[in-house]
Amino acid sequence: MSPTVEAERPPAAADAVIDVRGVVTRFGTQTVHDGLDLQVRRGELVALIGGSGSGKSVLLREILGLQRPDAGTVRLLGTDMWNAPEAELAATRRRFGMMFQEGALFSSLDVAGNVATPLREHTDTPAHLLPRLVNLRLTLAGLSAEVGAKMPAQLSGGMKKRAALARALALEPEVLFLDEPTSGLDPITARAFDQLLAFLNRDLGLTVLMVTHDLDTLLSIAQRIVVLGGGKVLADGTAAEVMAVQDPWIESYFASRRTVPHAADPGREAQADGA
Amino acid sequence: MADAQRSCWIDEHDGQVVLHLGGAWRLSGLSELSRQLCGPGAPLQAVASHAVPTAVDGSQLTAIDTAAALLLLDTLAEAGGDPQALTLRHFDARHERIVEVVRGRFAGTAVQRRRRPLPLLGQLGKATADLGALLLGHVEFFGRTLFELAQVAVRPTRLRVHELFAQLGQVGVNAIPVVALVTFLIGVVMAYMLGLQAEKYGANIFVVDGVALGMTREFSPLIVATIMAGRSGAAFTAQLGTMKLTEEIDAIRTLGLSAPQVLVVPRVLALVLTLPLLVFVGNVAGLAGAMLMSDLTLDITPATFMERLHVALAPRHYLIGLGKSPVFALFIAIIGCRMGLSVSRDTRSIGINTTSTVVQGIVAVILLDAIFAVIFQELNL
User: Fold this and answer.
1) Which residues of B touch A131 (CB under 8 A)?
2) Quick check: A265 pLDDT over 70?
3) φ/ψ of residue A262, rounded to 5
4) Which of B26, B28, B35, B36 to mutate to test the interface with A (most CBs of A within 10 A)?
5) Rounded CA gap, B343 and B335, in Å?
């Protein structure tokens, strides 16, 4: 058994937006999750890390209701994602946003059309306000309004991610899920994306859960890091707490950063800011 | 309705017009909020005659999100106010932050005018130019493929034998059941329809002449080629298009291989080699269908049918039918491959190009068949 730092977690936090209990996932003979527990409280910005095949993305898909776990319960915003009636699920789906790794923009619609789709389907936004609201989403995601007229195929990788974020933000979600938000981005764009997420979390009060491998993201904006390994939560806490855990994978993971000479540690600045 | 449930009202403090907000201002209630804010009898309507609110009071507000904040600022701006000069009073800190976030971006949300669609004549011109460019591209691709084929002919070791056999299996062997079924049924229908006419004149036996000639010279090549245009042409486009999107084709190029030789030549060869064989299958199945129908409805026994077939069907008809098919195959394969390789960067264009391949393939086959008909007419064949 690996030691963990999940000592004094409240038994069933009333404000848990995401509540995963005893989740078991198997692919054939391979067990990916073996009785996994995870709680995320309202307003937190949590990063999920773990080695390849540790089931980060699978866990995300199980929370979103895209893939059924073999056992255990998944509650998102109070809804049991695998047993609730369809009407309740439909209502819950409007309360979270998901940004897929490759954006998953609808290629037949321009960017504005992509962002407008959930608004048209699920709200009765007055017609005169819709284009303006779409533009607000684009600017919240750090794009200018002109990008709305472009087709997804015309966008660079970073812009695609921002457009996907704008679509995920369309319905004023309470929870935002992101799968590898900064993968494939250059460091400058990636850091700007980090700041964008921190802003959404801080100023709009969004709860954020993301799967990431980006150490800079972890150290600069993540308030809590959850490490998956061996089918369970290996460590859970702030960057400093997680780094202190004695585990070969965690140690080599963070060591990969310490090998960069003179690398500034934005984590310290962020902690100072947050205090 | 009680005051507590109103979401906005107006009063004046110290000569300043203040808009009060109450309740929950959320995206889900946006149209109702819009109605209350600026609909008939709404506070802004009543006040528009003298002054636009210059301050907003949020003390009664229970919730606000960015969409509702945008509605508020947009409505005030429409009424002639300046959102940037607006004073926020008694807002909860979280609510105020959201309104400030939206206010900071308000100018950036201004709606640009959309590009107007081309007028009808412009669209016609663009469509014509696009078609011209498409056909010109086909000609170029056709030339390039012939060049690659010639290179393979000169140096046969360059042929990707493994890929060729994989394609022969997919394009040829796997297509036999559907080709046989369709042509068999066409044979049945032809014999039946011709039989209805021939019976009137007691000329039952001439049904064999009609079916044999029609099937082997026209119907079998045409129908089999049409099936293959839908089946293999579409498959080529989808395969190559997906490979293009996943950058496999770029990978082939950077490894120093020639994409046309690795991908296009085996496909073109496979279709050119198999289509005549499939037409042969179609001929046999079609004649078998006709034979069955003649036996059942026209009292022509299979033995009589075969005997008449030998007399009625000159080999040249049969050979003309077979001979047309490699030409059909060449066009179908080249259209399919070229449309696949010209897929642009998104998944949607795979669908568009695949549709286009099937349409172009079928049109090309029928057009070629018509040209052949004229040529053979002139040659008295």
Assistant:
1) 111
2) no
3) 55, 20
4) B28
5) 13
Question: Which region among A259-273, B115-129, B234-248 has the lowest average model confidence (pLDDT)?
Answer: A259-273
Q: How many CB atoms are located within 10 Å of the residue A142 CB?
A: 19
Nearest-by-Cβ selection for B70 from A108, A136, A144: A136
Beta strands A45-50; A71-76: pairing state: unpaired
Q: Please report, to the nearest 10 degrees, the dihedral formed by the alpha carbons of residues B139, B140, B144, B149 taken in order.
A: 0
| Pairwise CB contact (< 8 Å): B111 & A133 | no
Q: Where are the alpha helices (DSSP H) in chain B?
A: 30-38, 43-47, 66-78, 93-105, 120-154, 161-167, 176-200, 206-213, 220-228, 234-245, 248-254, 259, 265-297, 302-312, 315-341, 347-378
Given an 8 Å threshold on Cβ–Cβ distance, is A132 in contact with B70? yes
Most confident of A38-52, B31-45, B82-96, B235-249: B235-249
Best residue in A135, A144, A196 for a mutation probing chain B (most B CBs within 10 Å):
A135
Q: What is the amino acid identity at position A226?
A: V
Under 8 Å between Cβ of B368 and B327: yes
Q: Is the separation of the CB atoms in B232 and B171 below 8 Å?
A: yes
Which residues, including other chains, have CB under 8 Å from residue A221's CB and lie 6 or more apart?
Answer: A45, A194, A195, A197, A198, A201, A270
Nearest-by-Cβ selection for A140 from B34, B105, B348: B105
CB contact at 8 A, A212 and A190:
no
Residue range A197-232, pLDDT digits in tens: 888 888 888 899 999 888 888 888 888 989 888 888
Burial of B370 (0-12, 13-18, 19+ CB in 10 A): exposed
The pair of three-digit structure tokens given for residue A40, joined into one six-digit string: 């995320």
Cα A98 to chain centroid, rounded: 7
CB contacts < 8 A, A to B, total: 77
Q: What confidence tier does B3 reach under pLDDT thresholds 50, 70, 90? A: very low
Alpha-carbon span A152 to B349, nearest angstrom? 12
Q: When comparing pLDDT for A87 and B115, which is higher?
A: A87
CB nearest to A132's CB, from B101, B109, B345: B109
Question: What's the predicted TM-score (pTM) here?
Answer: 0.70
Helices (H) and strands (E) in chain A, counts: 10, 10
**Measured between CA atoms, how close is A231 to chain B, in angstroms?**
32
Q: Does A139 contact B105 at a Cβ distance shorter than 8 Å? A: yes
For CATH 3.30.750.24, list the domain ranges present in chain B: 8-109
Between CA B85 and CA B68 the distance in angstroms is 19
- Which of the pair, B171 or A32, is modelled with greater confidence? B171
CA distance, residue B160 to nearest chain A CA (Å): 33
Residues A136-188: pLDDT tens digits? Answer: 888 888 888 888 888 888 888 888 888 998 898 888 888 999 988 888 788 88
Of the partner residues B66, B345, B348, the one whose CB lies closest to the CB of residue A108: B348
Instruction: Please check whether residue A139 touches B, CB under 8 A.
Output: yes
Distance from CA of B364 to the nearest CA of A (A): 28
Note the ipTM here: 0.73
Do B112 and A136 count as a contact with CB atoms less than 8 A apart? no
Q: Is A64 on the interface with B (CB under 8 A)?
A: no
Q: Which CATH number fits domain B8-109: 3.30.70.1130, 3.40.50.720, 1.10.1040.10, 3.30.750.24?
A: 3.30.750.24
How confident is the model at residue A272, as a pLDDT? 43
Interface test with B, best of A95, A139, A151 (most B CBs within 10 A): A139
- The two beta strands, A224-229 and A45-50, are parallel
